[in-house]
Amino acid sequence: MTNPYVPLLILLALGFGFAALSVGTSLVVGPKRYNRAKAEAYECGIQPTPRAQGGGRVPIKYFLTAMLFIIFDVESVFLYPFAVAFNQLGLFALVEMVLFIITVFVAYAYVWKRGGLEWD
Amino acid sequence: MTAFIAGPNGTADFSDTPLWLSVVKALFIFVYLLVSTLLVIWFERRVIGRMQQRPGPNRNGPFGLLQTLADGMKSMLKEDLKPANADSVVFTLAPLITATMCFVSFSIMPLAGDVTLFGHRTPLQLTDLPVAVLMVLAVAGVGIYGIVLAGWSSGSTYPLMGSLRATAQMVSYEIAMGLSLVSVFLYSGSMATSQIVQAQESLWHFIPACFAFFVYVVTMVGETNRLPFDLAEGEGEIVGGYFTEYSGMRFAMFFLGEYINMFTVAALATTMFLGGWQAPFGLPDNGWWGLLWFTAKLWFFMFVFVWLRGSLPRVRYDQFMRFGWKFLIPTTLLWVVAVAFYVAAKNNWFGGPILQIAGRDYSLAVLIVIGVCASLVIVASWILGDRAERRAAERLPQIPVEVDPFAGGYPVPPLPGQRLVEPGAADDAYAATKEVSRG
Is the terminal CB of chain B with fewer CB neighbours within 10 Å at N or C? Predict the structure, then answer.
């Protein structure tokens, strides 16, 4: 009986080996013809937009979504141990789970009320 | 039905599996996935072709089966372009991350029960962890990095926008996906995939966890960036999304990643909700038979993916995000609470008498829980549906009842329900304006 994570790493190595081999082979086999226009950013044929310093700014909406994701994803992961050990924990688990989900809903209602879930 | 053998920690039994056998199984899964990908791309193009009343690819090999292989060879022989603005290290790394991570999740999928392989009795599953499903979600999370980094490192506008969209989309739907799996854990009391399959021996989870199954199917389409949720690639708006600047084999890696991810989410759906490798209607599923049923269920989901692509248009981004955040997440949380109460009532924690209805035993508490949940759903849909209707009515533009078809000087046909002003009066009014302007 080996460590259960070892076979997982074997598959990881196989996948990486395959990907690296195919990309590497195409680098060797494929043609290379330099052309300045080919190396420009693709914008359907028009002059590419000049790139802003440091990649430019992105809409704040995406940042907010990422923040909300962290909060709610961690909260949903907290539900996993409850769910798995539910039968052993008994009625205590049910009460705890409901209280926890009510707390999540308070945060959720606050975010909704403040417009954190509006996209436009 | 086959007898299940449980190992330590509530996972499958791997005591008769030497390391070299694990390597063989890893190779088997790897080849299985690659062949499935080759076939599913052909399958998708053929089925979409039929849905659009054209034959689809049918030239290379019998029925065009070798089309994907030919496409792969072609992209291998193409120039591997790298834009001048691109960050060369990350630009190369991103497709490798995507193509590597997509394989890993399959290591915990039980492809079949116990089989005899080279004289060893071993489950047809590479490995089993007590936290297997959590591992799948974690690997999917790392896989998102491939997309984020691809868009960021391209140094171009469209890929950046595509990768931002893809990231926001995938993280938003990952929450609902994670929550929909909680009810399965509640029913099976384990996160190990072998135990979850075992827990479905009498009843597959898609019946008692029907709403979670619905949410999972929606989120799995959102997670894999497939139509109608392929906003990250929306060809009409942002060219190709995050892989706009990719060509040749690196692009093929993203393509491969997308299709293997489809197999991964479908395999998870099969394992969690559709009984894994178990056969329906008591058909044989011992040994290698399991692989047949598992593959059949996988291809059922593949057909659903293709079917959706053939029939639905792409949704708008704000609608998509609103659906995820304002519908899927709260309803799935409530569903988890409902299932928790149901399981508690079934475990008889609330006490109460056992009723005999039509020769079967029902606990009164279970019936009460189901009744309360059902009536809450009815009341909620009644109130919310009413409110949504009222809001929609408020949002409608006020259409005037009478309309002058020549008001702006151009003839405008009336909308349904509108009454025309007498044409004569309108002509007089028009003449009057002419006179005023002339005078």
Answer: C
Report in angstroms the alpha-carbon separations of B11 from B6, B21, B78, B108: 6, 18, 46, 11
State the ipTM, two decimals. Answer: 0.89
Residue of B nearest to A4 (CA): B127
Contact assessment for residue A93 and residue A85, using Cβ atoms and an 8 Å cutoff: yes
Q: Is the model more confident about B3 or about B50?
A: B50
Q: Is the CB of residue B122 less than 8 Å from the CB of residue B14?
A: yes
Q: For A70-120, what is each residue's pLDDT tens digit?
A: 888 888 888 898 888 888 888 888 898 899 999 888 989 998 898 888 877
User: Can you tell me whether residue B354 is helix, strand or coil?
Assistant: strand
Between CA B171 and CA B143 the distance in angstroms is 11
Three-state SS at B232:
coil
- Separation of alpha carbons B105 and B267, rounded Å: 10
What's phi and psi for B360, nearest 5 deg?
Answer: -120, 155
User: Rounded CA gap, B359 and B413, in Å?
Assistant: 68
- Least Cα distance to A7 among B18, B404, B178 occurs for B18
Q: Where are the beta strands (DSSP E) in B196-244?
A: none
pLDDT exceeds 90 at position B393? no
Instruction: Encode pLDDT of B210-258 as tens digits.
Output: 899 999 999 999 888 887 888 777 666 777 778 888 888 888 898 899 8
Judged by CB atoms closer than 8 Å, whether chains meet at B167 and A101 is answered as no
Minimal C-alpha gap between A27 and chain B (Å): 6
The torsion defined by the Cα of A33, A34, A36 and A38, in degrees rounded to 10, comes to: 40
